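Here is one chain, start to finish.
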Amino acid sequence: MLEDVTTAASSATRWPTAYPQGYAVVDVETTGLARDDRIVSAAVYRLDARGEVEDHWYTLVNPERDPGPVWIHGLTSEVLEGAPLFTDIAEEFAARLEGRVLVAHNAVFDWQMIAREYARAEREAPVRQRLCTIALSKELGLPLPNHKLESLAAHFGVEQRRAHHALDDARVLAEAFRPSLRAAAEGGVRLPLLECRPLTEWQDRPAPRIGRQADGGGYGGYRPGSWRPSRKRPACPYPNPGRYEAGKRLKQGMRVAFSGDTSVERELLEDRATEAGLHVATSLSRLTSLLVTNDPDSGTSKVVKARQYGTPVVDEAAFGQLLADVEPASED
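Its structure:
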């Protein structure tokens, strides 16, 4: 018993002072994966600075449209028709997130879905930072066969009872996050925190209400809104001057690719690059001038190819600084 107390006291003295003071472990189930899809259920486990559970909350949400993959989340039109709208639960949801780091598995997805719902409601989610448990497991070097939630849960001996049910997924993640957080604290690991920026560009368009699914249901009758005017990105008018060299400026015409989670929504970041005169590439080749990623140690195909080809790699923050001073294309 004395040994346990001593260990606990020792652990307490090593807890990094820079770590956040509280976390909101979140899971949302949605009508799909696109930017125009909607939340159908949400759950939040509030944790203290050391990952201990303070309370939890769960709600269904009427998406005002077809519920999407019912075979995954199990929520039918009939179940959701009487559920509150997002505007009805926005205040309570915000109270659960206020002043905390949002924690999720593949956090960029959950954050963007939440941010878009708040944008539709003409509000902002009170979240300033997020932490992805996939990124944290990589930082810790956990020997996982893949990055699925079930694999993370199995590693820490957490039982998953109802996969794709927001409340159970949030519980499982909270229970797996606690030992992950403690391991990070013990090892002095810097938490992979990313900035959350609210989205404010939603333009609403009419969509079939729930229970009025055209074309026999599914996705056929859904005409989504748009985050910005629909347009095709113009071709880059400048020739590719070659690869980026560290310490120098980007030059118009350089071919830039992106990989992984970004704090600024990916499409907005790509638009900024295009406006600066860069060529945004959807894949990576020997002609790529630069790869932008916040996780250069990941195993994504773009990162792997960048290593093979010797393509320069910078993170999002460095790229943002480079965008501020792009060299004009040569007048040849």
